[in-house]
Amino acid sequence: MGAEEVETNALAQARAGHTFTFMGTGAGCGVPAFFCDCPACNEARRDPRARRGDCGVMVRGAESGATVLIDTPPDLRHQLIREDVRTIDELLYTHAHFDHLGGLGELEYLVQLVKKEPLRTYGSAEALAGVAQEFHYMMYCLDRRELAPFDELELDGVRYTALPVTHAPGTFGYLIETPKTRLFYASDTGALPAETAERVRDVDIMAMDATFWKHNWSPDAHHSIQECIEEGLALGAKTLYLTHLAMHYDEPITLTQLEEYLQQYDGRVRPAADGLTLDI
């Protein structure tokens, strides 16, 4: 293949682009939580727009169809069916808490019956150790590849940089870069470490932990909605999506109320939604 042909292919890939899909946008117990009768959960029982599964995202090549998942939440099978996903090419982990890991078992038969080779799986040493502990019987399904802080990898023309965030040991957010978009995804984090914050300054899109409404029970591991907005806008994010939303910690807030609250930001701050797809 000559240099001109390589350049033509690269330009075609840039034009074709990629999509970024929020597979789930809720904190651990989802919205509605089965045990909760708060206004936010009851709103979600009435209105499908307000429902949230556990957090995960997907990056897919618009032309290649190559599919990268970040995390395997317990709702994964339903999320994959909803998005008409038929195969997965790579898997990245932010960390190995249940709400980001629990759906991994759904991929065993994809590997056994379709791929017939281990699925390339990336994460920190701590995250991969957690995967091995919880799903020890599935290790034959995974080709585990350790990432150190600030490591970069390129998958289907997209660069992923593993950036440390403030949560469990070894938790990463990912800076996701295409030829036209810089996007930072951090589903679980408190205030960002200084170097990570500098790396993501002025991104086009930031999708970040906004677990709590008002009072933050866990400031060393999560943001409140207000803290997420303050930090995201201070870092110059052009568009900020609130994700990992509990909607009923510390006090309930319905989606209708949240959308009204966010009107003051003139569209720059938006609630993420399950199934929302962005061109990147």
From TrEMBL:
Family matches, as CDD domains: metallo-hydrolase-like_MBL-fold
- What InterPro entries does this protein map onto? Metallo-B-lactamas (IPR001279), RibonucZ/Hydroxyglut_hydro (IPR036866)
Gene3D superfamilies documented for this protein: Ribonuclease Z/Hydroxyacylglutathione hydrolase-like
Which Pfam families does this one have? Lactamase_B_2
Q: Where is the Metallo-beta-lactamase domain?
A: 52-244
Return the protein name.
MBL fold metallo-hydrolase
Q: Which organism is it from?
A: Gordonibacter faecis
Q: What is the lineage of its organism?
A: Bacteria, Bacillati, Actinomycetota, Coriobacteriia, Eggerthellales
